[in-house]
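Fold Annotation — chain and its backbone
Next Lines — sequence and tokenised fold

***
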Amino acid sequence: MSANLKDMNKIQFFKAQLKEIRNSLLAHHERLAVAESVTAGLLQFACAQMESAMDVYGGGMTAYTLEEKIHLLDVDVEEAQKCDCVSPLIAEQMAVRIATLFHTEWGIATTGYATIVPESKGKLYAFFSIAYQEQIVHTEKVELEANTGAEEAQRVYVIRALRAFNLALKNQRRSDISL
């Protein structure tokens, strides 16, 4: 398969997934907000690509530094300092806080490393977390090969987060039915 055809298949998958997410949020009159660090606005960009995005996407924030995450997203200061703002707990706090700030039912947050830096100890990884009504429903660590480029790492993190979000939406719908 040629490189262009592979890229087209990725784009089509991405669009189909965003459409599913949008349809699920619309059907339940719910909205989403996003807090990012490692993905540097790419997740916000993806959410904004949904048809009628303003009906389901409240907005987002990119907070790169420890100070901004503490100040704007109210993450735990001690945890942030201990882990360079890269931990499951930080992602969870960011996800809950962004949903609160934007008055949405759902929040997604990403934090991690898109390049190898001394703080990452030679590894390339990120955490993302998904909150629903101020409760964490999913947190995941994504590990990549150390030679993965920054742009590819960010793209993979976004795809994995959106895939998990789509699954979380489906799981929530199942649990709503069984109540």
In short: The helical segments are 3-27, 42-48, 66-73, 77-83, 88-102, 150-178.
